[in-house]
Amino acid sequence: MFPKLVLKTLILAVLCIGLYSLCAAQEAGSRDVTENWRAPQDHLLIPPVEICPEIKSTIDAPKKEAPQNDGPQNGKPEIDAPQSAIPKARSGDPVLALTISDLTPRQLHPGEDFTATVRLKNVSTAGIRIPWQPDGEQVTRESSDGSEEKYEVADVNFRIVSGSQGRLPVYLESYGALFAHPQNRDNYKEIQPGHWVNVRFKGTVACGLPECSVEIRPDEHATLTAIWYQRVLVHSIRACNEKHSSLLVRQLDSTPFPVVIQRKEASTGDPAQKKESRQP
After folding, report:
1. Are 189 and 83 in contact (CB under 8 A)?
2. Domain boundaries, the chain
């Protein structure tokens, strides 16, 4: 009788551990920004010509990364640090894993649209925050003196490799973004360790750069990669000087996702019209 009781207890313990592990790793949320998203406009007022006959505009080179913390340091709050700043981790340890979990359609055609769901999984030991609002106009705001506005944005660029000539990548037209104000925690989604979020973006199988030297070719063994690009953008106007600056928070490449690129079929038109056009 006693051994049977012990065996049942052990089985229940194993089941409980299994259920806990299953619940511990789970989806923390999802967003679809294929259509309903909006980037914020510039709201700062340019000084009148009587005050500033000439406005000097500069664009700072992007800084490589944000402060490596998620809160106060040395007892002082990091007021200017984005709420999603990367938490400290052991050297070489990744904190977020990016994958493409779904693609529609599975067979791509040059010049046509597709949607892709990317998954961000927290593989660190601390919570990580990412922008989570699709409407950027709702999160940006001016400073108290009206001289500066800032917001954090996260979007995805898609990169495809096709053909056998050098296997060079083509950066595609990509759409969709998520926004947050750096000092408003409610604008972010916090991903706990072992959890993940899914975000659906839109793209077009066409070069997204002003000039492309590589052609997208039909290929049964092409690969699609998603690049998560998250940064804080700052716009300021002070003493007739306008400045745009960017602070990179994190940049991630997904593992390559296998895709098939098929040649776009030429439109055949209406067969009845073709037949009629051949008649004398």
Report:
1. no
2. 27-264
